[in-house]
Give the backbone structure.
Amino acid sequence: MTKNLHVFKNRKETLFFVVLFIISIISTGLVYALHFNGPPIRSDGLGYYVYLPSIFVYNDISMNKFIDAYSKHYNDTPTDYWNGVYKYENSGNYLDKYPVGVAVMSLPFFLLAHFGTLIISNFSGIPPNGFTDPLYHAAQSFSGLFYALLGLLILKRILDKYFSSKSVYLTLIAVTFGTNLFHYFTYDAVFSHPYSFFLFTLFIYLTIKWYSNPNKINSILIGITTGLITIVRPTNLVIVLFFLLFGLGSRNTFTQIQERISLYFYKYKKIILIITSALLVLSIQILYWYLITGRLFVYSYTDEYFDLKNPQILNVLFSIRKGFFFWSPILLLSIPGLIFVRRKLKGFNLAFLIFFFVNVYIVSSWWSWWYGGGFGMRALIEVIPFLALPIAAIFEKILEIRNKTKKYIFLFVIVILIVFTTYMMIQYWRGLVPIDNPGITTVMNALLNRYV
């Protein structure tokens, strides 16, 4: 009975996540102590956050009171367009273009910070206004870290089903430090990406679980997860493709599709549960739109758009500017890894590949395909838990190599790839890599630790 209450399986797992947590906390502290970034709630993060103080501090969903207080504190004049929040037509209300999902998920951390500020304000003089006290910033940053680490723990649970312990830990290290994921654990933890990483990992876990046991609990959980994915980043709803196609192979596809449709009809009550649970979560966003605009559905990004006729797929995946594989080359291991992962998890490849290419097409069709400032291609961070499976399959094969020289050569190359990304992330923090549009000269200077 007691064992079931334990978060971690064993001492090794406990040690791994405790060490990772400590590294993350120290790194986050250094980011702000050395003024690499600040304050935590800034840029897009401020747009995601503004719901919380507006509703729970100022009791004003129109956001007018919060924006007025925030602007006065920083000696700014409130404008009709404020950090992605803008006056909606003639309503007098501000409409936040950023979805409500991050605010929903970080609410417990905000409330802890607010109550803490209320307590210390009596003797500190710091007003509980939602932004002055460092507690608000620390809580929001910790919220992103919490969900990212929880996502990694769930990812480990998935990998444990199919791979050896050594392969699993190597994979977790690779995807954490060999990609831009750790950057969004720490430096930009208030953005939506750690939340989406957690939700996508949970979605994979629940998809595998649902097809082995499509009961009420699993149906409700996958519905809630789908709803949260949508209100954190609406375009990520494309992940439903993975659920629909999971378990299907490339042979006898038509027959398999017929069997899948029959399964959904047979389990129609569970499918209704999934849809209902997702819609209940989605109704939070719809209710917000209605209260602000009087409309149930609103395209809040106004003049920002998708150019579906001109997707920048090669730039998104391989460019120096923000290429997904350029800044996280360890992820290239996932390509040959797909050959081996299909033996471990049948029906994964087809579902993943269709989801991946549709998702990349959508991401690369956004008018700003580089997605503003950030380290690497942040719009594809959500794909990392999918790629972890074929990467683990590659590690499994490398560890099985009997020739020690060959094995260590492979492992050495992998270490170099991980070090490259971690080193370049630190150079980004230091300002040697610009927040956007670095050229080959900039990259070379950053590698040589030189300012341009």
